[in-house]
């Protein structure tokens, strides 16, 4: 039987073998996912076909991005179904149509800014939009910054530096916004989400998280909720410690946890377990799609085990179907 995660109004059934790909195709790591206005699922992955498009039942529709993207990392979709594809391998953000036409490129492909220079970009990670359509970019692995751009890609301002104090970052890994213009930043290795106003002023932070990696704002209005994908332990010394993830946490707009899905007994490929949640999206019915970088993570979590073929093929994409009360 498929596993059921969560409780009360936050109960989800794991959909087994969700992605139905053409023969011989593999997703490998799924860095991020997005869902458009027609509930089509965009799977930004590190396989030979970087953008795989599925319907909500997991049936293959098309792919694009072959030869364009270097290393998939972040994916955001706007109200007009434009895709913002963050490529940390060539240090760019590309705005694309749903059939892959590039409308805007921010950053110079294959030319990173100097390491920790604060200039965009050095392995940028994700994007989010302000209510006015301004583009926020988290940056990333070789920087400790958030950059704010006009809708046509002109830099407005940047903030952040390496460190552990408020407004400082240790791998700024993901970013989200809400209808009021607040900016939420997954500060992964500082084990927190920091909250800023639209001009980069630090407001507060959410703690009691373990390596927050994925960050998805759900719903509009003044009471959004957020789904946070948390990575499990990354060190040999705590690899087998329970209750550290990988898992999903659902929090309210103040960061208060209202549900937690999985993670009590560590990583795995069994139904109801996660490997390395890296990207999250919801569809119109409240079902959750989870992209995982299980291939990259495998030797960290399972150094003495061979990786099953399913991990490389399709297991790095999961669908959790909401169970009505």
Give a written overview of the molecule:
There is one protein chain. The chain is mostly beta strands and 325 residues long. Helix content is 5%, strand content 42%. The chain contains 2 helices and 27 strands. It has helices spanning 294-301, 309-315; strands at 4-7, 10-15, 30-35, 41-45, 51-54, 60-64, 72-77, 83-87, 92-96, 102-106, 124-129, 135-139, 145-149, 155-159, 161-162, 168-169, 172-177, 183-187, 192-196, 202-206, 212-218, 225-230, 247-251, 257-261, 277-282, 288-292, 317-322. The strands form 7 sheets. A 5-stranded antiparallel β-sheet has the order 1-2-27-26-25, with no helix packed on it. The protein has a 4-stranded antiparallel β-sheet with strand order 3-4-5-6, with no helix packed on it. Strands 7-8-9-10 form a 4-stranded antiparallel β-sheet, with no helix packed on it. The two termini are 19 Å apart. The mean pLDDT is 97. NHL repeats lie at residues 128-152, 160-199. This is NHL repeat-containing protein.
